[in-house]
Fold this sequence. Notes:
By secondary structure, this protein is of the alpha/beta class. The protein is built from 11 helices and 9 strands. The protein folds into 2 domains: 8-293, NAD(P)-binding Rossmann-like Domain (Rossmann fold, 3-Layer(aba) Sandwich); 297-327. InterPro entries: KR_dom, NAD(P)-bd_dom_sf, Sc_DH/Rdtase_CS, SDR_fam.
Amino acid sequence: MNDLRDAVVVVTGASSGIGRATALAFARHGARLALAARRVEALEEVAGLCRSRGAEAIVVSTDVTDPRAVERLATRAEEAFGRIDIWINNAGTGVFGPYQDAPLDLHRRTVEINLLGGMYGAYAALPRFLGQGHGTLITNISLGGWAPAPFAAAYTASKFGLRGFTASLRQELRRHPDIHVCSVFPAMVDTPGLEHGANVSGRRIDTGPLVYAPEDVSETFVHLARHPHDEVAVGWPARAAQAAYALAPGPTEHIMGIAIHRMLDRARPARQSYGAIRQPLSDRPRISGGWRRRHGVPSARILSLAGAALLGGATLLALGARAKRQH
């Protein structure tokens, strides 16, 4: 869909972070939006901002772990706009810390939100796409779907599952050329999600310098709505993780384990928090987590150029070392 004006877009997890940025991005293109999350007040605020940009928007309170609620979301979108063109599975959460230190229900809830929530979204969207002969399903996965993240075992399990699920759907639908299943793998993104997830590590999470803006992901969603692709990374660390784990899974796991352990060793103490996993928080809904602003992190373009320079330098060093060994 090169022209997104009047396209009907469903966005889950639309109250804050990437989902909020996504709603505003599609609103700027004149799409008609069905916005879903648990907090109605937060959704109403986003919907108001979308309407101020000339877009139509409805709000549907939805817990993505409830398949009946997800089906009700699809029905409400159809009733309001007549069809669904694009469905974006964006709701997500995580538990950070030693697996055995978190209450088991937090791990279960993480898998329900991330994996089952995406599956319920597909279950609601695909029959409608097949009935009308077109549609695009976009699922926000994360680089955690390519390389396992230590101290985020349930999150990693759900994201690996999502990648396999969406890849399977693509093959099922290969005879329907106008129905697309797109998977998005962002690198670390500066959203309130770090606060909304659970942290039982006893240490403050540090995103590090390679953190991207939520708008970088939302613009990728807009691009995929116009030009669908199977799997798309956002940020060079995600591309690097994909290549590294595909070529050398053992060393990649080892390096990631060392890096996260060292990060925790240096991190400042923090109280345990269960975030918004069990129930929504009452914080002010926002797009950014504020980390990039506080630490002066540059734009995605500069990060990508820096990453390319580092990768190029490492490649030249490796080639030089190899040439020396050969002589």
